[in-house]
Design goal:
- The protein has 27 helices and 34 strands.
- A hairpin with a 3-residue loop joins strand 33 and strand 34.
- The strands form ten sheets. Strands 10, 11, 12, 13, 14, 15 and 18 form a seven-stranded mixed beta sheet that branches.
- Helix 4 crosses helix 5 and helix 14 packs across helix 16.
- By secondary structure, it is α+β, with helices and mostly antiparallel strands.
- The protein binds one RNA strand of 89 nucleotides through helix 8, strand 11, strand 15, helix 11 and strand 30.
RNA sequence: GCCGGGAUGGCGAAAUUGGCAGACGCAGCGGACUUAAAAUCCGCAGGUCCGAAAGGACUGUGGGGGUUCGAUUCCCCCUCCCGGCACCA
């Protein structure tokens, strides 16, 4: 019994009052000492978390696994949301390493953007300096937290080595007509002093400044033709079954595909026509219900419709009213309640011709018609549209029934429906030669008729708009375009990339782009004619950076291309992407677009960037989102200093399943700290680095105490492995490990009595450490070493589950009478149904409940439960 | 209005395929160790009622109904909370 003297007697090992920290044999877990020791070691070995080169892999049988967490904006310091996000990814990466995969687990910095400019203005620090300093700080935090990133692939989007490829992609987009310049109404955030894409406007406010109303401005802007892929972006969602349904739904809503028909209504000039009419004498209307067109009793125009402008120009009275409508609409839009606007309209005095029946209908302008959807004009069918019905009632417009609801029997007389009847299951009436057609059939026939007669056609409309990427800001990727007086818009030749963002720029939020005030940047030479040219001073939306950065990780130091096609093909798609749901539309839709674009460039072969997406819940405190304003922010640095990185990470995984919001409680992390200490103390007390080999005796060879440990160990291996492979409920993984540790503590007396063989105990401890390794890497490494293991824990094989060893020899079967729990019987695990029922019926308590009654039914669910039904 | 997600002890949560509701942890209570405290270890613990106790009865997963021997789990109806979309023609 060589280990006898090593067993600690509690009194000998208990730390005394003072100066206990440095005492030899101290059992208290000093997380700071252990964690800083390992952080330094890991720091020294850059290759530790490096993904293996793909060239080594064409022959190797190792499977790849690309796990990615959304890269952070370097705001200055990590917050708890980051810690949670990265703890999930890190646990997964470590688990996959231990399971023998070639893991790619990179990290980078989404480092262009407005906060750097604000900081520059406030602290007089250049954006570059501010950003790089923040990156250094956050990188140090990540290292201290022990995240296993392949830093050799670090991507920093604000550096020319990266953003030159944004410019390169822009040129490719431009060549293919996918980047274009257009004057249009754009969203303008006064606080950002720049425009925003539609996706970046939330409830009429800026996505970064939720209290700042977005204004509309007319500006020349660069757009990316995301709508070219609208259909594929939509249909591709069906195949993304590794994505949360919620995100897919959000994207579907955002794309907003709608099938319908365009129909031209001609303005009628028969009366009051002064020789030349308003620009565009036809009014194209978009409708999803062309089958109801015989019920159209007016045409409604958006107040900002160009024809309205012309009509108003001829009619000052109308103009005042239209201005009023525009104001109402704008106000409602800004307040974010355009949906609740009080319907209000004005008759223009003009009429338009319904091309299907040549009927003259009045043309109105209404505040609920939106210029930026469809054509900005509708045909109003009060009988079959709720909004039109409401409007018609208010202004006394005609309501004409043209659809009758279809009943089961087509020949049966149908009662007049309550109006408005908006159902699709009907047939046409009062519709000339289309009478008796079913709605869907009528839509087809009538669309075709319109197309044949050149006054309309079937069409598809999207809510999705092209992506406005111009930003009148300094800290972003310069758009590589030139304006030459002679040659117009000219692209910067590829060989002249990158267009370097100048460093010495006075950043202000006033006026246009700060770059305009840098003559050496603005003044350039036209590559076509050699004459003087003006450089584009807008920079790119920072969502361009994050749309393709994950490809760059596969080949981050390439200076001839964004990345090598073969290498990207090996790694893509990303097996698991993890981040907050706030990017469900913005980042994730742009990324999907970019992937399709790169595929069509022939750079990649995958259609989608991400196989599986996981959106983790928020970290909240006291029931509310953490924010500086509320003063409920928990700082990761403070948690690491007080409890250690392992505790902070483990708690963020333990407190709730990862997809739910996590309510941070300081007392909760203390419990985790206690648990880590418990694990540490057990191993310190029981480590036998010099143990002989564990020969794996069969269960019957072990004393009951040891056998109980073995059973629990294998049950734990199964639970932890299953949760990694299926749903990711790390909280239950950790609970399972806690239970194992509790069993080990319960066995300490048996261990002291030598009922647990030393080699077996060593094996159990090894497995315990392996199970803990993905969640608490510092403690796991420390204990691994303490157990005398020399190999790299990171790549040590994940414990293997053995069903035979996990099996219970005896089962406690609950016995119900009429569905109510009355007793329990202990039976051998392999007991037959007869035996179990016999025992159950023989049970004293059960007998008391069935006495004098008739047994109707006996139910036995093997291994689970007995239910005796009596009456 | 439409589409998701959710509601379980004092709190965070668990119950993975319809089978012991509350694992694990926090907070709490009791005990051990200590001169004492901290730390640590062990134990108790949904609620109500009966009982001195051991123990027992009833009840309990937002509310109501249903299916079933049996429902946190499946079906129908309703309430509340969170997120997204919304005169989208």
């Amino acid at each position: 019994m060589p280990h006898e003297e090593k067993i600690a007697t509690p009194s000998a090992e208990r730390p005394s009052t003072e100066r206990d920290a440095a005492r030899p044999g101290d059992e208290r877990y000093d997380a700071q000492r252990v964690e800083t020791k390992w952080a330094e070691r890991w720091q020294r070995d850059a290759s530790l978390y490096a993904a293996e080169a793909t060239s080594d892999h064409t022959k190797a049988a190792k499977k790849k696994y690309y796990v990615l967490e959304m890269l952070p904006y370097p705001s200055g310091a990590l917050h708890m949301g980051h810690v949670r996000n990265y703890s999930i990814g890190d646990a997964l990466a470590r688990y996959m390493w231990m399971n023998g995969y070639n893991v790619l687990h990179p990290m980078g910095w989404d480092s262009f953007g407005l906060p750097a400019e604000n900081a520059a203005i406030q602290n007089n620090t250049p954006p570059r300096e501010w950003t790089l300093r923040n990156i250094a700080n956050m990188k140090a935090q990540m290292k201290r937290l022990g995240f296993a990133y392949d830093w050799s692939r670090e991507v920093t989007t604000c550096l020319p080595e990266y953003y030159r490829w944004n410019q390169w992609f822009f040129l490719k987009l431009f060549e293919r007509g996918l980047a274009y310049r257009k004057k249009s109404k754009v969203n303008w955030c006064p606080k950002c002093a720049t425009v925003l894409a539609n996706e970046q406007v939330v409830n009429g406010c800026c996505w970064r400044h939720e209290d700042t109303l977005v204004e509309q401005r007319e500006l020349e802007q660069w757009f990316v033709r995301t709508t070219k892929y609208a259909d594929e972006l939509l249909s591709g969602l069906d195949k993304l079954d590794g994505w949360p349904e919620k995100v897919r739904t959000m994207q579907r809503n955002w794309i907003g595909r709608s099938e319908g028909t365009l129909v031209d209504f001609k303005l009628d000039y028969a009366e009051n026509h002064k020789g030349f009419g308003p620009a565009g004498s036809t009014i194209p209307v978009f409708t999803t219900r062309v089958d109801t067109i015989f019920g159209a009793t007016s045409v409604q125009l958006a107040p900002e419709h160009p024809i309205v402008k012309d009509l108003a120009a001829e009619n000052p009275g109308l103009r005042a009213q239209v201005d009023q409508l525009i104001a109402e609409q704008r106000k409602a839009k800004e307040a974010g309640d355009i949906g609740e606007i009080e319907k209000h309209g004005v008759f223009t005095g003009r009429y338009a011709i319904n091309p299907f029946n040549s009927e003259r209908v009045p043309v109105w302008v209404a505040n609920y018609i939106l210029m930026d959807y469809g054509t900005g004009a509708i045909m109003s069918v009060p009988a079959h549209d709720e909004r039109d019905y409401e409007f018609a009632k208010k202004y006394g417009l005609e309501i004409r029934l043209v659809i009758l609801p279809m009943s089961g029997d087509p020949d049966e007389t149908v009662a007049e429906p309550a109006l408005p009847f908006v159902g699709h299951d009907g047939m046409l009436v009062n519709s000339g030669r289309y009478n008796r057609l079913a709605c869907d059939e009528a839509i087809r026939v009538m669309s075709a008729y319109a197309e044949e007669n050149k006054f309309g056609k079937a069409t598809v409309t999207y809510r999705l708009k092209d992506w406005g990427i111009s930003r009148q800001r300094y800290w972003g990727t310069p758009i590589p375009m030139l304006y030459c007086e002679k040659d117009g818009i000219v692209a910067v030749p590829e060989k002249d990339l990158p267009v370097i963002l100048p460093e010495k720029v006075r950043v202000t939020l006033a006026g246009g782009s700060p770059l305009e005030s840098v003559p050496e940047f603005v003044n350039a030479t036209c590559p076509k004619c050699g004459g003087p040219a003006r450089r584009e001073t807008d920079t790119m939306d920072t969502f361009v950076d994050s749309s393709w950065y994950f490809y760059r990780y596969t080949d981050a130091r390439n200076d001839r291309a964004p990345f090598d096609a073969k290498t990207a093909q090996y790694w893509f798609p990303i097996d698991q992407y993890i981040g907050g749901v706030e990017h469900a539309i913005l980042h994730l839709i742009y990324s999907r677009f970019w992937t399709k674009f790169m595929r069509d460039l022939g750079m990649i072969t995958n259609d989608e960037p991400v196989e599986r997406l996981f959106t983790q819940g928020m970290v909240i405190k006291d029931g509310r989102k953490m924010s500086k304003n509320l003063g409920n922010v928990v700082s990761p640095d403070e948690m690491v200093a007080r409890y250690g990185a392992d505790a902070a990470r483990l708690y963020s995984l333990f407190a709730a399943p990862p997809d739910r919001d996590l309510d941070w409680q300081d007392s909760g992390i203390e419990g985790i700290q206690r648990f880590l200490g418990r694990v540490y103390r057990f191993v310190v007390r029981n480590a036998r680095p010099d143990h002989p080999e564990w020969g794996k005796p069969s269960p019957s060879d072990l004393a009951p105490a040891a056998r109980a440990i073995q059973r629990k160990l294998h049950q734990t291996i199964k639970r932890v492995s299953d949760d990694f492979q299926g749903r990711w409920h790390f909280n239950t993984c950790i609970s399972a490990i806690m239970e194992l540790v509790n069993v080990l503590y319960g066995a300490e007396e048996a261990i002291a009595r030598n009922e647990v063989p030393a080699p077996f105990l060593a094996d159990v401890q090894r497995n315990l450490v392996l199970l803990l390794a993905p969640f608490a890497p510092y403690l796991a490494h420390e204990l691994w070493e303490m157990l005398g293991e020399k190999g790299n824990l990171l790549k040590a094989p994940w414990p293997k589950f053995d069903a035979e060893l996990a099996k219970e020899e005896e089962l406690e079967i609950p016995v119900q009478v009429n569905g109510k729990l009355r007793s329990r019987v202990v039976v051998p695990a392999d007991a037959t149904e007869e035996t179990v029922l016999e025992r159950a019926l023989a049970d004293e308590k059960v007998r008391a409940f069935i006495a004098g009654k008739q047994i109707v039914k006996k139910i036995y669910v093997p291994g689970k439960l007995v239910n005796i039904v009596v009456k």
